[in-house]
Amino acid sequence: MFVNRKAPHGSIYAYEGLEVILIFGAYDQEISAAFLDDAVLSLKKGQDTSEIGTKEFSATFRVLEAYGVENRYVERESLEQRGLTEEDLVMDVEVVDGATLRKYMGEQDVLLPF
Amino acid sequence: MKFGILVQEGPYNHQASDSAYNFIQAALEKGHEITGVFFYNDGVINTTKLMDIPADDRHISKRWSDLGAKGIQLIVCVAAAKRRGINPDVLIENARIDGLGQLSELCIESDRLITFGD
Amino acid sequence: MLHIVNKSPFKYRNLDTCVRVSEKEDPIILIEDGVYAALKGSSIEGLMKKTLEDHPVFAIRADLKARGIDEVLDGIEVCDYSCFVDMVEKHIPYSWL
User: Fold this and answer.
1) Cα–Cα nearest to A20, from A81, A111, A108
2) ipTM passes above 0.95
3) Positions of chain B with pLDDT under 50
4) Do residues B75 and B106 touch, judged by C-beta distance below 8 A?
5) Of C1, C17, C23, the CB nearest to A36
6) Which one of the listed residues B34, B67, B74, B77 is annotated catalytic?
7) Any idea where the domains of chain A sit in the sequence?
8) Under CATH, which architecture does the A2-113 domain have?
């Protein structure tokens, strides 16, 4: 499982993390992705990086499902802390609380942070 | 047990690379196997041989290269390396530049995958 | 699951999220700047005491020593890299970077 926690544009982690998710998806492994803390901001609608000159990649999250990332979780408190709701996000996700996310994390062989 | 290591930060700026190295040394001393070290994000900068380090400090890329000489595979992500000017000309001995698929392989081969970063 | 925390709790909220996304008895290991959470008499002592009620907490000796911390909060177990390796052997690790 990819457990993402970083915001999208101030550093490259979210973008390079997404690249890893796509490659792993192509390798046909069973993968899931979780977004918590600032990583929920990567999924926010309406991002436009044209004036800062960095690559815009929020739209790419929409292809995760097609890449076999069937389980996409967002932690509820992270969303609420940032004043966001599920409707603000670019892709369909399952919003879960911390305890449920921990349960899913406990079912994984590998937990990769980005 | 088989441990795979992921290094996400460059040398010197962060302690990540030192912690990864210390962890590997302790694991080897205990008789564990290190399946490989994968360098991603700024972690790829660990593998440049152009580092010029004062004699009183640790030489991080040399330290990795010596570990590679012991047969531990050092894999540098090609996409991350290209962004940061790491290519075969500047790469330390005993490391190789390869695709992200190798990280996937490392996850499969290892009993545990542990990440060091910032 | 083993939670690895490497950030100072005074600048980052990693420890808060880690505790929120954890199960009772999950071990937490403090490494690098994460060991500052073991300081006695700090403003986060309350959070740490609460964390210690539900989790075994470890701190790496070498990181404490490097930062001049010779005394840690009661209940935090000081451990070396060898014990860090043992813990990763026992649990699937996640680094709260």
Assistant:
1) A111
2) yes
3) none
4) yes
5) C17
6) B77
7) 2-113
8) 3-Layer(aba) Sandwich (3.40)
